[in-house]
Amino acid sequence: MSKMEVKTSLLDNMIGVGDMVLIEPLSEDTFIENLRKRFEHNEIYTYIGSVVISMNPYKSLPIYTAEKVEEYRNRNFYELSPHIYALADEAYRSLRDQDKDQCILITGESGAGKTEASKFVMSYVAAVCGKGQEVNKVKEQLLQSNPVLEAFGNAKTVRNDNSSRFGKYMDIEFDFKGDPLGGVISNYLLEKSRVVKQPRGERNFHIFYQLLSGASDDTLKKLKLDRDFSKYNYLSLDSATVNGLDDAACFRTVRNAMQIVGFMEDEVQSVLELVAAVLKLGNLEFKPESRCNGFDESRIKDKNDLKEMCELLGIEQSVLERAFSFRTVEAKMEKVSTTLNVAQAYYARDALAKNLYSRLFSWLVNRINESIKAQTKSRKKVMGVLDIYGFEIFEDNSFEQFIINYCNEKLQQIFIELTLREEQEEYIREGIEWTNIEYFNNAIICDLIENNKNGILAMLDEECLRPGTVTDETFLDKLNTVCAEHQHFESRQSKNSKFLTDHSLPHNCFRIQHYAGKVLYRVEGFVDKNNDLLYRDLSQAMYKANHSLIKILFPEGNPAKVNLKRPLTAGFQFRASVGTLMKNLLTKNPNYIRCIKPNDKKAAHIFTDSLVCHQVRYLGLMENVRVRRAGYAFRQAYEPCLERYKMLCKQTWPHWKGPAREGVEVLLKNLQVPAEEFAYGRSKIFIRNPRTLFFLEEKRRQCLEDLATLIQKIYRGWKCRTHFLLLKKSQVVVAAWYRRFAQQKKYQNIRSSALVVQSYIRGWKARKLLRELKHKKRCEEAVTTISAYWHGTQVRREYRKFFRANAGKKIYDFTIQRIMQKYFMGLKKTMPSMSPVDKSWPARPYGFLDGMHQELRRIFHLWRCKKYRSQFTEEKKATYEEKLAASELFKDKKALYPSSVGQPFKGDYVEITKNPKYQKLNSLVEDKVLLADVVSKINRANGKGAPRIFLLTKKSLVLADQKTGQVKASVPLLDLSSVSVSTQSDGFFALKLKEGSTSAAKGDFLLSSDRLIEIITKLHRIGAASAERNQINIDISDEFLVQFKQDKVCVKFIPGTPKNGNGVACKRKNNRLLEVSVPSP
Ligand SMILES: Nc1ncnc2c1ncn2[C@@H]1O[C@H](COP(=O)(O)OP(=O)(O)O)[C@@H](O)[C@H]1O
Ligand SMILES: [Mg+2]
Predict the structure, then answer these.
(1) Pocket of ligand 1, candidates 38, 52, 58: which has the most ligand atoms within 8 Å of its Cβ, to mutate?
(2) N or C: which terminus of the chain has fewer CB atoms within 10 Å of its end residue's CB?
(3) Which of 146, 157, 162, 163 has most ligand 1 atoms within 8 Å of its beta carbon, as the pocket-test mutant?
(4) pLDDT tens profile 752-805
(5) 907 belongs to an annotated ligand binding site
(6) CA 19 to mean position of chain CA atoms
(7) Closest Cα to residue 952, out of 882, 900, 896?
């Protein structure tokens, strides 16, 4: 369910009544009974109209959670059960939305829960206002200023374990959006007497205990402190520890808070040094020392504490020591130094301690302000939170109580001023019928205290400034004379005889009837406290300190600025600051939280009727309710009212023409609001009950929802319509384009189809025409042919007898001639090449040309041979002749022959003429050398060959040593009978000599040469060419005899076996047989 739909009211599940205005019947008893009933159900908040009454529960309740914050956020004040958050929300929203500065006034007795309430308000505002890094930092600093100020300004009292001993007013500043910018804190009158003396059961300020319990050993050592409380005179011991309060943890919290607020490390250190110095100061003790002039002069008993303190603060010990023994009084031109007695020394010590501490506190406030002050100069909205000490009535009431109670009187004034008087006056102004409510206006008491001429504070100041002996008693005397007639002043000695016998009124006291009750003040100490005197010697000693913070705190100690005027009195200062505060508060819209304390025991669940009744009375709560009940809960000027609710009625919506008041009348009549629920003022409408207001608000909310729906409806309709129109327009455009495109395409289709059809038809027509034409032409041709044949036949028939005799031979001759011509022409084109070895010849075309064709081939061959031969030289011719002779000799007879065909017969293979080695050999030979080569001469004994140069000339052959060229044998060719060679591919040949010739004596030669064919051919040709010699026979056989000297040896050629290898091998088989194995080719 969304938040908007939750319809709750203050009236839902109410315990007692949530708003005292609704109580029936109204009496003090019912009032207190209602408070009690609610308190017992943990409903600690109750309203009187817009004022919140808060009962201190003395226990933590689960009503301050983040969920609660969300629940109360942006809700109407009367919508949910009473809560401090509702007030905070109301204040914050009217600050943010209506631009009204706010102040939240929290009043009540000490321990009633004011400080807690102020913290709840601040945390609520922090939770609901803007977020963001910068804003969060500001919030954090604002919130964290609390722990720091509480540590230094709060103490345990009999009424409250965490009682604020100073008044605090904090302005939180916001920008126009409601985001916090910063704040300003004002402090009022710290109860500084507590520093030197505490009543029974109470403590000094928290910071002293926190420092001693929480600081590290190291820090304590630096501060020259001891953890033991009992070592310090200023610390009361009977209640040094407080139940449920962990001083050590608090110290850490405070340190942390100081850091967040923005204190520098050295600043924190200085502050702690001052706190330590105050403790040390308390330990100084004095003893009397008689002087020759008979006066006693005070002396410091034990100087150790003094020394340590001086070290801490950087003060020269002797200066301070002297300040505790002497006092310099400056009057006009002269300085008079008087000694101090022991009592005066103690007075001076305590005055210094109090001043030191209270100035330190003020400095802290200023320092915090510096950190949290808004960074912008633009206009700020302000929410002030006032948490000031409540009304105090002790057994022994002194100057402080007087001041505090005065402050509370002033606040009551504001309350009266704004709620009661204002309210009544407004009714009168508006002409609303009004039964006057009697209420007590305490202005008269304020006047008694603050009147400039004869007020009590003025009297006190006068007395303090008066020359001559001034004591508290002379002050009381003065009061007795001046204020005697005042109806709220009571004193035994006053001229008013009424009190002469009043024994409840001691002699040294006066009594004031405050609005909250009678308080008896003891005059003792009034003058001193008002004077707040610190001997100038001490302030000068402090100013001389070598400690930055101390120097700042005692500016009057500066000798350059000696001011002989008396300093302002405490009373005067307080009166002035209260005056400023009041003025400030009056400019703001007030929100009240009235705190009530249910019992004196700080205990949960206890509700002491008498105590509550007393508070209800002096807070004037009953009057408050009465005024509320007699009056109207809500008022508003007609114009804004009409403006706000005009939508609730047809006549006023949307515009009302007449005056606003009439509009409102019509409106309310129309809504049937009962007549007793409202009244018409002059300029405002007054609504009696908040419920009526809620009713109007609820109606308005519904109506706004309806209106929103209507606006939404119209807007949606408009949006859809425009969208639709746009779509329609676009659709038309698209359609137009599409249609155009489609038509274009269709047209093109039709056009191309028409063309196709057309072309087919044309083609068909053309073909038809062509066919006809062709037919016509063929008919014509046929006619011509037929007529030609016909003519031919006619002619042939006619001329046949003339042709038959010669035509045959002539046609034959012509045909033959034609054929021959064609044959020769063809032959000319297909002639083979000129190479004699070319065997090709064109085929004959006709069988009858066969003989001539062969003959022509033969003639052509002979002719080209002749042509070929005619280009030969003589030399080449001889070579060819030699080759021819070789062919005749060996072709088909010896297997070696084919390998020689390709080799040209060079003749000289050893270059006999050129080689110088054979020069001699060459010269021995007479004829031209026809052949020179190296051959192997086969040894008959082993068949091995020895190389020999073989020379052949026309007449002889010569065998010579290959190396030396020495002739081994020379045989004339005439002596050669025949040559034997094998049929195989070996190079063996035997040269056989004629028997009986001279050469034969040495025997035949068996030689071997690769060029056997050339050698033998040349040898044979020499024989053939010469006439004198016989032809040399050439025997070709595989077995022949060779004559070696005496023996005939048979040389036999056999085919080689593979084991003999590829070479020719000659082996001697026996004496008569040489076997040559020749590898088969
Ligand atoms: N709303 C509350 N819820 C719980 N405890 C509270 C509440 N208000 C006050 N107290 C208790 O009462 C004590 C005194 O309250 P405090 O605000 O210091 O009083 P005052 O400032 O009026 O003297 C607090 O320390 C706290 O224990
Ligand atoms: Mg307080």
Answers:
(1) 58
(2) N
(3) 162
(4) 999 999 999 999 999 999 999 999 999 999 999 999 999 999 888 888 777 666
(5) no
(6) 54
(7) 882
